[in-house]
Design a protein that fits this description.
Oligomer: single chain
Structural class: alpha/beta
Largest sheet: 6 strands, mixed
Number of strands: 12
Shape: globular
Distance between the termini: 23 Å
Length: 296
């Protein structure tokens, strides 16, 4: 069983909420995850001191592989010369040198792709063909039980109930490519509200059998939540095995002074349950076919 802690859009700077940040740290310490995914927007205005604070925050997490990717707020907005000539200087100095990475943990391969485009598509981002090739190479030849995960700050599929959630240019091309690679899961942020679903909810694509599970986190530690998560903070916990992906969505409540589970989502890898040697479904009790008697 793989346990992933998913946080996003920390926004160190004026929007950051220190008491919520402390709750995230306490949550992570209790969870003791296999790996941590932080899907971009570590800062509000890409200032060195904001990156330094974000780095100190990341360093306090439990000792586990941490997958990071930059967000559009991690490149300068108003410092035009820096944005054109060296937009990732402070990100590279404080967060991570590499912008596109491959992380392997037992049972999963995680490809983090830099979706920021500081010179062209600052807000909506962009994924290039060579990055899709990088993912294809990383996922090639993996055993069937290995979970394939893509992380990017910007979203490939908008939540169907959120107006203004414009996707990246040529996002459908990327989804078709990831589907052909049998990617199981895409994780991201950017919208400051969570969405947990399947790529088939918004784009049928060429392969309608399996789709890709989409897990987007809201802002985990800032006051910049939007839509149903306005003034809310959220994070996700994912439990993965060879057959299923379970996502629990947590929201911070002041009266609890903690993150509290508000929903749980269960998906089959490959879009359907595995079959045993007699052709019967092998499922957890929650997935039991309503036509069958409960198993004892």
């Amino acid at each position: 069983m793989i346990t992933l802690l998913h946080v996003s859009d920390l926004h160190f700077g004026p929007p950051y909420l220190p008491h919520v940040g402390e709750a995230v740290q306490a949550f992570a310490a209790r969870l003791n995850p296999t790996a941590i995914v932080a899907s971009g927007d570590f800062t509000q205005r890409a200032k060195p001191e904001q990156f330094a604070a974000a780095r100190a925050f990341l360093d306090r997490f439990p000792k586990a592989p941490t997958v990071v990717t930059p967000g559009n707020h991690d490149v300068p907005l108003y410092r035009f010369a820096e944005r054109l000539l060296d937009p990732y200087r402070h990100y590279r100095e404080h967060i991570q040198r590499e912008l596109d990475t491959v992380t392997k943990i037992p049972g999963a391969t995680i490809v983090a792709l830099n979706s920021t485009a500081p010179r062209r598509m600052l807000v909506n981002g962009r994924i290039h063909g060579w990055q899709i090739d990088l993912a294809r190479e990383a996922f090639a030849g993996l055993p069937d039980g290995e979970v394939k995960i893509v992380v990017a700050h910007h979203h490939f599929a908008p939540p169907p109930d959120f107006e203004g959630g414009d996707v990246m240019p040529r996002a459908q091309r990327a989804l078709d490519a990831f589907t052909a690679m049998k990617v199981d899961l895409i994780m991201g942020g950017h919208l400051h509200r969570a969405y947990i679903g399947n790529s088939l909810d918004v784009y049928a694509g060429a392969d309608r059998e399996h789709g890709i599970v989409i897990v987007e986190s809201g802002t985990s530690t800032s006051r910049r939540g939007r839509a149903r998560e306005a003034e809310k903070n959220t994070l996700n916990v994912l439990r993965l095995d060879g057959d299923t992906i379970r996502v629990t969505h947590y929201m911070y409540f002041d009266d609890a002074q903690d993150f509290v589970p508000t929903s749980r989502h269960l998906f089959f890898r490959r879009g359907r349950p595995p079959l045993d040697e007699k052709g019967r479904m092998e499922v957890e009790a929650i997935f039991t076919d309503d036509r069958e008697e409960p198993r004892t």
